[in-house]
Design brief:
Blueprint lengths: L2 H7 L6 H12 L1 H4 L4 H8 L3 H10 L5 H38 L4 H9 L3 E5 L2 H14 L6 E4 L2 H8 L7 E5 L6 H12 L4 E6 L4 H5 L2 E5 L3 E5 L2 E4 L2 H22 L2
Parallel strand pairs: 1-2, 1-3, 3-4, 4-5
Antiparallel strand pairs: 6-7
Helix pairs in contact: 2-5, 4-5, 6-12, 7-12, 8-12, 9-10
Length: 253
Amino acid sequence: MRLEELINSRYSKLNENDIHILGYILNNKKRCSTLSINELAKVCNVSRTTILRTVQKLGFDGYSEFKVYLKWQVEKNKKIDNSSLDEFYGDLYKTIKMLKETDFSVISNLIDKAERIFVYGTGAAQKIVAQELKRTFLAVHKYFHVIEGSTELNIITQSITQKDLLIIISLSGNTENILDCIKELSIKNIPIISITRLGNNKLSTIANHNLYTYISTLSITENRKVETFSPYFILNDVLFREYIRYKQNTDCK
């Protein structure tokens, strides 16, 4: 059990001094895991006996047992951090390797021939990826219209044609509120490219063409985790470079 959970479970037994001591420990876990009971008492400006009573209220026999537990908590968090970093490096490598083995010729042709190109990101981070894709392709005078929300997507559905191109950027590929709209476009034979994390998802089965990335979860704390979108920006850059290569090859013919 995490220290925060342990404190919450015994909160009714704690007095003001206990809360003061435990508040300091929570904010300085690494440092406190190395302090003796006398040193902790000094920095908290309480007696040695008060420290002992506090840890006993949490269910520990004494301060030594609590200190071992605290060191274990610190080491556990360190292992989580190292594991997340290794996984992140691994995802970058696997994404680059997968993209290197992907044939971009058909997708590059779709981008080149499309009369209009629409890009939709299903969330806040995905919209940033969409905006970056738009910015990147401006260098070669390809103009991407970034769709700002599901309402705008539904409106565009009424006018988009087979001569246009729709790119959907999603993390899971299972965003329910847009799937009906995407299915309707697929029935109309609108070219659709999905960009999602690797794995089976509803969006990739509907789209004509799929691009994938490996996405890992970054553990900031034990109970706070975020998805890292760096591989999406790598995919953006690779897509742009592959498009340039496609144009150079076709223009030479």
